[in-house]
Write a structure and sequence with these properties.
Layout: E1 4-5, E2 13-15, H1 18-27, E3 35-39, E4 45-53, E5 58-67, E6 76-81, H2 87-98, E7 102-107, H3 117-138, E8 145-146, E9 150-151, H4 152-159, E10 163-167, E11 187-191, H5 199-205, E12 211-214, H6 223-237
């Protein structure tokens, strides 16, 4: 059953948005009395019945809770350089499916794509929609947040209390040596652009109190591949919770 997400805590009765109503009633052809799964802003999932439909908004009645919010050992934050073409779209979708909590687009020195201020908002809205679709597809109970575009300096300043894991092609320290250090707590997976990190960017990242540059092995990975590899490793270490 495809899950519907609402952006507020559930109540005994509530209305679906116009978009979700259209999808449920017109696209999926649900009828009055049908049961839908609804995940609220806390990450809990409920069985809800379609109680009424006026042609515009579907009125829902909550029947019972069927899943509690997922247990978390800390947030997984994927901070990735903005990638060209549709690579960032694909990364957001797959990070959502794997269980990342937040995706942050980062404007870095060697980024091929340089987003103007006017274009940044539209891109973030697009990426948030892709994250929502990924969450619906994989059956998770919450939707990852796609943050505003940041510079690397802003990223370090805002998330400096978290652990930073930075896959870096010039590093020889294997990722597995730091796995125990990032099993709990918030962790930022920071991925460079197609052209790689500049030396000054690596120095900046190391100003974070808990920053680990690591190797993902002898093969040269694309940025989006490196990001999802790192997410998968940390999710495995945390038991895929």
């Amino acid at each position: 059953m495809r899950r519907i997400f609402i952006n507020h805590p559930i109540t005994d009765t509530f209305s679906l948005s116009a978009e979700d109503t259209h999808h449920a009633m017109t696209v999926l052809r649900h009828e009055l009395g049908d049961i839908l799964e609804v995940a609220d802003s806390t990450g809990a999932v409920f069985a809800c019945v379609i109680a009424a439909w006026d042609g515009s908004l579907a009125q829902m009645k909550m029947q019972k809770q069927i899943a509690a919010p997922r247990r978390q050992d800390g947030k997984i934050i994927v901070a990735t350089a903005i990638l060209k073409n549709d690579k960032f779209d694909w990364l957001v979708q797959k990070a959502s499916e794997l269980g990342a909590d937040t995706v942050i687009p980062v404007q870095m020195e060697h980024c091929v794509v340089k987003l103007s201020e006017n274009r940044r908002h539209d891109r973030v809205v697009r990426w948030q929609r892709i994250a929502l679709e990924g969450a619906k597809q994989c059956g998770r109970t919450d939707v990852p947040v796609v943050g505003s575009v940041l510079t690397l300096q802003e990223l370090v300043r805002q998330y400096g209390a978290a652990s930073f894991v930075v896959p870096y092609e010039k590093e020889v320290l294997p990722f597995k040596t730091v796995c125990n250090l990032v099993k709990t707590g918030d962790v930022v997976i920071c991925i460079g652009p197609e052209g790689g990190f500049s030396p000054s960017e690596i120095s900046l990242l190391h100003t974070a109190p808990h920053c680990y540059t690591v190797s993902l092995g002898p093969r040269i990975l694309r940025a989006e591949t490196a990001a999802l590899t790192a997410v998968s490793i940390i999710m495995y270490e945390r038991g895929f919770t």
